[in-house]
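Q: What does the assembled structure look like for these inputs?
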Amino acid sequence: MLIARRVALGASFLALGFVAACGESSTAPGGETELISRVTITFTPVGGGAPITAYIDDPDGNGPQAPSAQVGALSLVAAGSYTGTVKFENRLSNPIEDITEEVLEEANEHRVYYAVAGALAPTGLALTTTDRDPQGRPLGVAFAALVGATAGGQSGNLRVVLCHYDDAPKVGTSTSCQGETDIDVTFAVSARN
Amino acid sequence: MGWPVAVRAQLRHLHGTLTHAETNTPLDDAEVSVVWAIGRGQQQRRTRSDATGRFDFRDLPAQPVRLTIRRLGFRPLERTVDLTRDDVVLTLTLTEAPVQLAGVTIQADTVVEALERVAAVSTLDREALNATRGQTLGETIKHLPGVSVIQLGPSIAKPVIRGLNSQRVLVMNGGLRQEDQQWGTEHAPNLDSFDADAITVVRGAATVLYGPDALGGVVRVDHAMVADTGRARGELAFNTFTNSRQGALSFSVQGGGLTLPGVGRTGYRVRVSSRLAGNAATPDYFLSNTGFRELNGSATFGVQRAWGTSELALSHFGTELGVLRQAHAGNFNDLQRAMSTAPRDSAFSYDIGRPNQRVSHTAARWRTTLETASRGEIDLVYGLQFNDRREYDNHGPLRFRNTPAFHLRLFTNSLDARWKHPSWRGLTGTVGTTVMQQGNQTIGKAFLIPGFDLYQGAVFGQEEWSRDRLTVTAGARGDIFQQTTIAFADAGIRSPAGTKSWSGFAGSVGASWRFSDAWQSSVRVARAWRPPTVNERYAQGVHHGSAQYELGQANLRAERSLGVEAGLRYVGTTRSLDVAVYDNTVRDFIYLQPRDPVVTLRGTFPAFNYAQTRARLRGVEVAARWSPVERLELQATGTMVRGTNRATAQPLFDMPADRALLQARVNGRRAALGAWHLGLGSVLVRRQDGVPEGTIYTLPTAGYALLQIEAGTTAARLFRQPIDVSLSVTNALDTRYRDYLSRYRLFVNDPGRDVVMRVRVPIGS
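A:
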């Protein structure tokens, strides 16, 4: 009898446990990651004229599908001088988030690096970072670009790397990312006469 | 570390025969146990009398031991047997009476003792555990034959048994399956190693008794039973580790005589423990962000009555641990750069920064054993577990940095019922059933695995039959699983809702043959299976520790294994030998198969699909002991595993390198010093070159040798207070090395010299 009572007690304890843990399962990540789904680069001629712009999209964000092809051609003029900006956006959220704002807010932890490869390297296209973080180190969201006088007809690649520093110190004179890579995309670029 | 296996200078043999006092017939199936004192503690061994009434203990210490014999329907028999001078043979009689219980013991699983005769099983007793106190569960068992660990520095150590880990190795804590997101190789078992009174490792499939998770083996942590009588006594233990400047502290109090309303006389044990460590040190540099802090508590209440025993245990485990910063990569370029640059010589610090994990495990375990004179023993274990895992990283805007990247909450309810039936026509055994319900929540910033509901039900039985020198065991089990995943979709990730069921059969047959008093051999065939886990089916995303992109396959089939193993055992007075060989074929073995890299705006990631193949795992384990003269003990263990993907004829990833452990130890006893010992040992690990091609994660590692020194004493007296003290030095020569199973091996060396001091002070008695 005693045993029966104890078993009954146990059963009710058990039932309580089952109720307590039921109906709670969920998949609800908050999605508050620094997801960047589009990188846009813009070159504005210093002497005036229409800005030249191109972007690359990744419609599934960090998903397994590869990013889209480059939209817009970066066709610069030989011996031309440009000011430029890069823009990072999450177009998969609604409304669209401008992640560039985050990068500017956390300028001390970020740096955008540009590297030119192909026939335009090393003298056909030169990019210089023009903005600084609060500690006076280059940031790279804004840049100046000079196209070589004899670069007409050449083409190459422009690699844009958004680097994130947490552990590794951000060093102003560094020429490549020594932190964690947030973005690594390559645009096709060409120079005409 | 300490010496994993208890070592004694002189070993004795105690055997005897049991007969019925009235009828003079032999009595089988009596539970025979011996208990002896070690320092201030006790050590226990159990066996059962065979069909001829015979029982047998080899390898006992040369000192007085307490022998207890219990058999259902008979009056228990207790007596002290003095083994100081010689082996002892006894002829004993039992008289019929209803059973009475004496609550003294570690509440171990009697069914495993049957398994022990045919499978490869090793146990770390209290003495051996005292030599490794303050370390993680993985570190504690890693020198047992057939066992190795996947490590992320000193804070995460994941047990590997015969080359298998994670969802293929079950951790049982006090009769409860530990459900703590064990599928992740960087998820260490969430339990307090101070709380263990015995740890048993079963190598090879033990799915009949433990369920599909035990396909590779079982790590079973057992606790001493709480006695409901006796005075209050306590224990204080503390350790210091020089390498990571770690301190560990455990304080426990236990006693009987508590009177609870509605329950009556109750025993209790309360324990609080904590560990705090900073950055670990290699011979040349500190490992940045590898500290951890842990705070655990448990309270256990137990009663012993005429009907049996019942225990309620409440426990909480909480840890925060850092993950090596250098091993955290944004993309594949970062990873390659981290591999090729010199490790950063970070300063020592106790601070834990990003990336890090905060994990807690809270459990209630209620275990009741009903003992009846004629109808056997019923064992009921109900468990409620809540596991909360938060993993933080450096990604994302600052204002969300304190939101975990991954946050998983797992609720588990389980009920296990076992009936150990009385001997029937020479058969002894256990039948049982298990039901489990599980719910998982995925919150945090990013998707890792979906939320799910899981239900499991099982029935099983295991029987043993013996005659003369032969023992035969056979077991069978059926399981049903149903898993419902909860849908998730954002721009990049689509994880569908779905319900899937699996069912399967596991079985094992084994036999052991005793050639002589000293030699015994065994053979066992086991068939096991397990359903795919949720990460294998639905994982989607980047592992920042390895910058590898993992993609689950929703339609994976269940994994099925068929293994054969054989063992040979010799136990003499001064020598012992234990050899095990096995050959295990796994159909539909689930593994990560390299595929085309995944390209995103963040860069390129080497990618892996969960895929299935036919795998084969073979291996040998040897453990030998020799005491050439009294006081001197020599020990050697060796482990070798070969895993092959039979479809590609390539080795499997994550197979431990061949290793051997050699030890020599001198023991003695002096009035003021207590039982002292001095030891010297070496861990020898061969180069791991059996690696699959095609990915950098599997690059071979070089062999290494480590020297270890230990000195200690138990029951020394300090200011009239008994005290156990030991000092050990691991990696005494500060050798630079990288173990193949270290997850940091692509970046940094393993930790260097560590001087460990352990002190244990019993309070009251």
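Chain B touches chain A through 71 residues (CB under 8 Å).
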